[in-house]
Amino acid sequence: MSSALGGAVHPAFVLLCCTILLPIGSQPVRAQSDGLTLAEVYELAREQNPLIAAASALADASETMERSAGLPPDPVFQIGATNLRLPEFSADMPNSMAPAMMLMQTVPFPGKLSLGRRIAGQSTAIAEADAMETWWEVRAAVAKSFYDVYAADRQLEVMRNTLRLLEDFERVARAMYDAGSGRQSDVLRANVEVARMDSEIARMVAMREVGASRLNALLNRPADTPVPSPVLPELPRDTPDALTLRAWAEDTRPMLEAGRTGVDRAETRRNLAGKEIWPDFAIGLQYGQRERDTGGTARMGGVLVGINVPIFASARQLRLRDEAAAMQNMAEAQLTDMRAQVDAMIGVLLADLARARTLISLYRQEILPQAKANVESSFSSYRVGSVDFLTLVDAQLILDRYEEEYYELLAEYGSDISELEMTIGRELPMTRELLAEVQ
User: Fold this and answer.
1) Is the Cβ–Cβ distance between 77 and 119 less than 8 Å?
2) Please, is 261 exposed, middle or buried when counting C-beta atoms within 10 Å of its C-beta (0-12, 13-18, 19+)?
3) Is residue 279 within 8 Å of 362, Cβ to Cβ?
4) Helices and strands per DSSP (H, E), number in the chain
5) Handedness of CA 354, 355, 358, 360 (dihedral sign)
6) Separation between Cα atoms, residue 46 and residue 136, nearest integer Å
7) CA-to-CA distance for 362 and 369, rounded, in angstroms?
8) Whole-angstrom Cα distance, residue 211 to residue 229?
9) How far apart are CA 209 and CA 81, in angstroms?
10) Is there a contact between 375 and 20 (Cβ–Cβ < 8 Å)?
11) Among 430, 115, 136, which Cα is nearest to 257's?
């Protein structure tokens, strides 16, 4: 074997060539048995995320208040003395009563209490749907951070392998230069590439720390809690069509469920506002006693019935109807906007998934194999002196960059899958064909 300079190949060069050719033919997705799984992260988030706990507590509070919504107002008990002689406040008048007691109970117009109870139940249903929506939002955020850490770890592996390759090249280039069979430019280029790769690794380590910190924040853990290397989960290669996903979202997306219940609640409030002009009843019992002049105690009682008179109906009760109608229109508009957002997000995510799926297939079937073949070709050409040694190294660096981009596409695809599951409010069914299957 002879070098491009015509001399005998330095023994260190043979070792470097083996190092360069070792990755050729390997698959980008490696077997992984140990590490952090997405299912474990989801479970931790459900148990520890404070936003989920707060939303659940709010739903519990709403359910607690629901029990009292159908009760009438508390009765009013009064006690005092009546018909006293002034200015002495003496109870020696013939019609004085001391003590005098009254118990009053307001009874809302029929239908008001049942409507109030229905509104409270609808508010609880909205709070429960909001709590479930919070879970899906946190779940998508957790998945995004999980895949960010996954991509950073896989890219760091590629970068560190590249750094070892460049360090080997630097040693070989220096040894060949010292032996008189190499060039100083090779040594200088190797130094530059080693320094550049060191900086890239430092940048990626910082990005990994950022992703881990975000994941720990979502799991309500200290930012410096160690995060094991994530394991790529099985990802479905195909997704249902847009019409199916929209139908699923209508059935299971908590945000849409809350919107529909909000429209129903607004309609119930409008019905209640229509009854506000009807008077409420007040029923009372009265008791009093006084001392007789001839001795003994005279006891008296009475029954009272009253109603409230809506003399300001045009400015109060009728305005309540207008307000309730406007709130119903708002709730319907919000539900329409929610559906439009879901439809748009489904379209965007399906397009992103199709793009990522196409690129992943392209990388696995064409780009990466061709890049590896380029390394083999560059090595063969260098052996016969057709290319210089730096061309061989550049070919390997290009292969490494494509592998980094491949892992980034896998992470993007997994994150989009979680985002789509949040958009429809359910997990996607696992298809027979997987995008990337962990062996």
Assistant:
1) no
2) buried
3) no
4) 10, 6
5) negative
6) 10
7) 10
8) 12
9) 77
10) yes
11) 136
Residue with structure tokens 């699923």? 248
- Look up the domain containing 377 and give its range: 11-72+108-277+313-436
* Cis-peptide, bond into residue 72, ω within 30° of zero: no
Residue 238 token pair: 């195909």
Residues 38 and 414: their CA atoms lie apart, in Å, by 10
- CATH number of the domain at 152, please: 1.20.1600.10
pTM listed for this prediction = 0.83
**Cα atoms in the Cβ-side hemisphere of radius 13 Å centred on 311:** 3
Residue 42 falls in which region: left (phi positive, over 0), alpha (psi -120 to 50) or beta: alpha
- The partner residues of 36 in beta bridges, in order of sequence, read 230
Q: What are phi and psi of 416, to 5 degrees?
A: -65, -35
165 in any annotated domain = yes
What tokens appear for 208 in the block?
A: 């990994």
Report CA-CA distances (Å) from 166 to 155, 190, 224: 16, 6, 32
- Answer whether residue 63 is part of any domain: yes
In three-state secondary structure terms, 109 is coil
Tens of pLDDT along 334-372? Answer: 999 999 999 999 999 999 999 999 999 999 999 999 998
In a domain, 18, yes or no: yes
The end-to-end CA distance of the chain, in Å, is 39
- Domain for residue 430, yes or no? yes
- 70-114 tens-digit pLDDT: 888 999 999 988 888 788 777 777 777 888 899 999 999 999 999
pLDDT, tens digit (0-9, with 9 covering 90-100), for 21-45: 554 434 444 444 578 999 999 999 9
> What letter does residue 23 receive in the DSSP assignment?
T
Domains identified in the chain, total number: 1
Burial of 365 (0-12, 13-18, 19+ CB in 10 A): exposed
d(CA 272, CA 320): 9
Report which residue type is found at 277: I
Cα 234 to Cα 229, 386, 429, distances in angstroms:
16, 44, 11
Cβ proximity of 352 and 305 under 8 Å:
no
- Residues 271, 117: Cα–Cα separation, whole Å: 13
- The CA distances from residue 102 to 93, 105, 288, 291, 308, in Å, are 20, 10, 9, 19, 18
- What 3-state DSSP class applies to 84? coil
Q: C-alpha distances in angstroms, 282 versus 102, 205, 228, 279?
A: 12, 73, 68, 10
